[in-house]
Amino acid sequence: MALQNNPSSGVSGATPPLIELRDVTCGYGGRTILEGVNLKLERGHVLALIGTSGGGKTTILRLLGRQIRPTHGQVLFDGQDLAPLSLDELYAVRRRLGLLFQFGALFTDLSVFENVAFPLREHTQLPESMIRDLVLMKLNAVGLRGARDLMPSEVSGGMARRVALARAIALDPEVVLYDEPFAGLDPISLGVAARLIRDLNDALGLTSVIVSHDLHETFGIADRVAMVANGRVVAQGTPAELQASEDPLVRQFVRAEPDGPVHFHQPALPVNEDFGVSA
Amino acid sequence: MNALVKFLARVGAATRGELAETGGGARLFVQLILRSGTALRRFRLVSDQVFFLGNRSLSIIGVSGLFVGFVLALQGYYTLQRYGSAEAVGLLVALSLVRELGPVVTALLFAGRAGTSLTAEIGLMKAGEQLTAMEMMAVDPVRRVLAPRFLGGIIAMPLLAGVFSAVGVIGGWLVGVVLIGIDAGAFWSQMQGGVDVFADVGNGVVKSLVFGITVTFVALLQGYTCKPTPEGVSQATTRTVVVSSLAVLALDFVLTAMMFSI
After folding, report:
1. Phi-psi sector, B187: left (phi>0), alpha (psi -120 to 50), beta
2. Per-residue pLDDT tens digits for B156-213
3. The pTM is what?
4. How many CB atoms lie within 10 A of CB B227?
5. Cβ–Cβ under 8 Å, residues B92 and B195
6. Which ipTM was obtained for this model?
7. Which of A99, A115, A121, A124 to mutate to test binding with chain B, by most B CBs within 10 Å of its CB?
8. Which of B14, B69, B145, B154 is the S-S candidate for B168 at Cβ 3.0 to 4.6 Å?
């Protein structure tokens, strides 16, 4: 079982992986967030990144859109290293990429319709009637065709995220990145969101990366799962493989045990010393 | 010794920080100018901003202009009647407004009314990850968000200064002619004879253009570089008013001195 961090694991095929992280190290101002991460994602797959908070999942997502650059190693998109690209070349790559922000990041001064139309208006010269049809199709795909005239302040958190999803797929990207798509959703919205991610991935021929804490929903829709902790990919494989893993850290995480390799207490002075009592 | 090294290090770090900030500001200014061309091609975005920044400031500019005109006429009459030339009140009001008070007071009000809302808007867009979202959609926020606002501010400011001066002159007429009873013919003819289109009105327009660039740029810079938190946005809004007001007053002295020497 290829569970450990092994770059050669994963599906081997004739086509190169769409996204690949090669020995990536990354940090902000002296603090290392990721260290020696190797990750591959095949076309058409849904990859879930799970792991403890602050473990580096979101950093991986930010590397994929080159919001930040690795200090060492390469991030490859369709075989192309992102780091040396000029701004214009980077924007060409980003047009093939959709990013769903945790809270949607809708433009608050534009209606739902105009939010979804925004990338179309910016990047195409399509006539108004075609923009209307495209926007309504995308909104229909997320079930919000009826909410087109609402302002972002008038929709719920779950709806805002679906609008953002419609906006992210407006230009038919090849890859959609989801940052915590399930955080703070009620059970119904959560199920809807999970189903949507899988269905859109298959119907539109996308490749998806999900960052999430929600194991139940994530395991239900992912093809592959990578667990990130302490800046490393500690395990990757199919959801079933991870659930069956004997690795203590993976076990603690998957079974939600309060204590294990990840301790309940922050490192601190011994209790008696801190409270000033002699043992 | 150690304290001295620490002190020097702190001074050095602060200087470097200031220099980096200035450099960042200068870069944004150049970017704004270079990317204003694209904004001009989509003039709808600019005209929307002229509406937001200009029309919505009209009431405060109009009311302030009226009262400034009132006060100018009263104070002017008080001084001029000592020399028996109370009819020159019209000229005094018009020259003060067109050369000085119109551009300067409008710029200060514009900083408080439109500058703060620009800073807060950009700062909150940043805090809500809207600018990042735009970048991730391969849309440059400087081109799409900042440049139209920059041009809108530059267009709105001279227009507002013109409204301010015009309303101020009417205020001067109300107090001078209607209230005090100065001869209306003398009031208007002295004004007509004494105000030069290029030396007075032209200089005023140049001033208001420069102030428009200054206030709008400061507001955009503060919003674009603020910390994306509630405190960060509130501090940036305050800084917009402080920095742009001081800049306007300092630039006003420089411009006036230059215009005198020409």
Report:
1. alpha
2. 999 999 999 999 999 999 999 999 999 999 999 999 999 999 889 999 999 999 999 9
3. 0.86
4. 13
5. no
6. 0.80
7. A99
8. B69
